[in-house]
Amino acid sequence: MKYVGCHISIKLGYSGAARTAEAIGATAFQYFPKNPRGLSIKQFDAADAAECKRICESRGIVSIAHTTYATNLAAEGKLREPTIRSLRNDLEIAEACGSIGVVVHFGKKKGGGDPLEGYRTILSAVNETLDGWEGQALLLIENQAGEGTAIGTTLEEMTSIRQLSARPEKIGFCLDTCHLFASGVWNGDNWGELLQRGRELGYFSHLRALHLNDSVYPSGSRRDRHANIGGGHIGAEALSAVLSADEMRSIPVVLETPVPAGSSHREEIAYVRKLAKS
Predict the structure, then answer these.
(1) How far is it, in rounded angstroms, from Cα 154 to Cα 49?
(2) CB of 182 within 8 A of CB of 217?
(3) Region 217-235: what's the mean pLDDT?
(4) Quick one: which H or E segment has residue 174?
(5) CA distances from 130 to 87, 133, 234 (A)
(6) Residue 240 and residue 273: Cα distance in Å, rounded?
(7) Residue 58: which CATH number?
(8) What pLDDT, on a 0 to 100 scale, did the predictor assign at position 114?
(9) Domain ranges, residue 227
(10) pLDDT tens-digit profile of 237-268?
């Protein structure tokens, strides 16, 4: 497995994040392009972003941006326009850093109501965000754990949104193992069935990132809490099966697992590489 890494802070800048990745033996990393707590527009340092791109290209590292916690593609009312502007800003930063794209959760319609209306809102937000976007950075839609609502948990939903969008060529997918497990779509034993279904849907043809996380809670709990690899209910054997699939061989793997204070993901990255070969 060529690209394995973790989420890294940009407190030292985008180029600093790339240097940190190299220092801990990571060949991939994920970052928040700006403050993850809001929907602000960041006037970013273009020179720093260009240096991040240069370091990654020269060291064989790939980077992936992740949009803010506040981003919800199903947002309505006064939050809709700020959400779209913020997400477009994330794409611009990702492009400048030479990143694969921007990971964004599928979206959740709040307040109940017709779920189909939620899908329409999400599709509309995706289309508006990508309208006129000519960069190489993709919008990477991530599956959800089912907290609050079961929307956005299945491979069928991911591929349907892409197919129905106005710019499908600008959309890829990010698969989160903890979310897939917590939602109940994956129970730890049906990976072969999911592989086959994903192939039929064309899901894996557009998969561009894998969030490799174990789960604190059991399958079907719909509770999103990440555990270290092999330390949760999924277990090392089931995660190894995911990594061993032919479709995963060239996909960047990013850990979003707890890291001990004052330490790094170096050892866990090495462990994941061993699992991928088993």
Answers:
(1) 34
(2) yes
(3) 98
(4) strand 171-176
(5) 9, 5, 35
(6) 10
(7) 3.20.20.150
(8) 78
(9) 4-277
(10) 999 999 999 999 999 999 999 997 888 999 99
